[in-house]
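Form 7-S
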Amino acid sequence: IASGSGDKTVRLWDAQTGVPGLVLSGHTDTICSVTYSPNGHQIASGSGDKTVRLWDAQSGIPGFILSGHTSSIWTVTFSPNGHRIFSGSGDETVRLWDVASGQCLAVVDDVRGSLASVALSATLKGLFLITGSGNFVRTWKLIDEEDQFQVHLLWSSAHSSLSVSGALIQDTQGLSKINIQLLKQRGAAGDPTLPLSLREAGQRLASMAFVASKLKVPTNIGTPREP
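Output:
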């Protein structure tokens, strides 16, 4: 276990016995967040001194000091492959760092409030960043292309302003799965009709065209006839 404290240190503990281990010193203010890399070889700590520090988990030897935030760093997390670190700060930004070089690769500054939580989700559709700040939860798509890293906002929810208690969305059409989930989280009731797939939409159009041909519905309604 790695724990951070107001005494400005990170302490390591044996999770089975509770025996204390290494004490990692270097930060100059309270430790606000500590996390292990996915392979357990490194530790990252975020502090009120506005820096993220890397440590060797076995020896305690300090690594890079990641500087750039202008306020306390409340949350740090590694990417699933351990190659990147994401840090969230009271300066209302998320910074993306390269573990191998210690360089800042990107700054996300449209998070609407002090960062309280940052999480990563790796799916078959790519890597996604989830941020919690103020009253907002936001999901971002991360695109890592050689020398350029891009972050695109997908959706945002404001907890304090989105309230639909008592609303009925039964059989409503046109809502995406994400919007359905958000509305139900805010108190909406009912089961909306999910959007048609391209195949279903094509089949429906073909069926309508067949019915129209049987009923001999003119296809040039509204078109003036020539004398």
